[in-house]
Amino acid sequence: MITVLIADDQEAVREALRVVLSAEPDITVVGEAANGADAIDQALRNRPDVVVMDIRMPRLDGISAIRALAGSSRVLALTTFDLDEYLFGALRAGAAGFLLKDADPDLLVEAVRAIHRGHGLIDPRVTGRLIGRFARLSPRPTGTDLERLTDREREVMRHVAWGLTNAEIASALSIGEGTVKTHVAHVLAKLGLRTRVHVVIYAYEHGLVARDSGSF
């Protein structure tokens, strides 16, 4: 069972999210928060598998809350506003996914499940812009960062950027799924990245994969 905490300052939005998620047999909503500070408190106390976090909230905004929860909770960022500052701010803070609030309910459910599995999901309407502009808006790491990776780790990184799951990567490279997980962990540690979403961004930024892909 996937446990979810919903954080949004609008009661009607929380209710709508709860109805959609609670209708799924493998998802249960374990808490709700109306501001960023309460979201942090509940997330640290209840340890939900996924936190669905609004960006604009009183007392403490969603991006600050995501940053505070980095390393302890997997967060899906939600916003009504299609603004670069929210998209990039949420991802840099450590969000594992990003959706606009008018996304199809099925996409919301898919995102929660993907994030629970350790993957990332970005709203398709902003993915192209993310790929096209991240290099210009982000500080470029030095070439020595990539040199820390082994050839196999780079190969696994490319497959992650193509959107493959660990099982699919294992099949493609004829290695064990546990070995894939180890390589992914090494990539995250060596490059100082937090999630698979950040691996994808990094891979596109450094030309490890072509920029014509719109899927994470």
TrEMBL record:
InterPro entries the record matches: CheY-like_superfamily (IPR011006), NreC/VraR/RcsB-like_REC (IPR058245), Sig_transdc_resp-reg_C-effctor (IPR016032), Sig_transdc_resp-reg_receiver (IPR001789), Tscrpt_reg_LuxR_C (IPR000792), WalR-like (IPR039420)
Keyword tags: DNA-binding, Phosphoprotein, Transcription, Transcription regulation
GO BP of this protein: phosphorelay signal transduction system; regulation of DNA-templated transcription
Keyword Transcription regulation: yes
SMART domains: HTH_LUXR, REC
Residue span, Response regulatory domain: 3-116
Pfam families on file: GerE, Response_reg
Domain HTH luxR-type residue range list: 142-207
Database matches in CDD domains: LuxR_C_like, REC_NarL-like
MF terms in GO: DNA binding
4-aspartylphosphate modifications at: 54
PANTHER family on file: TRANSCRIPTIONAL REGULATORY PROTEIN NARL-RELATED, TWO-COMPONENT RESPONSE REGULATOR
The name this protein goes by in its record: DNA-binding NarL/FixJ family response regulator
Organism: Saccharothrix tamanrassetensis
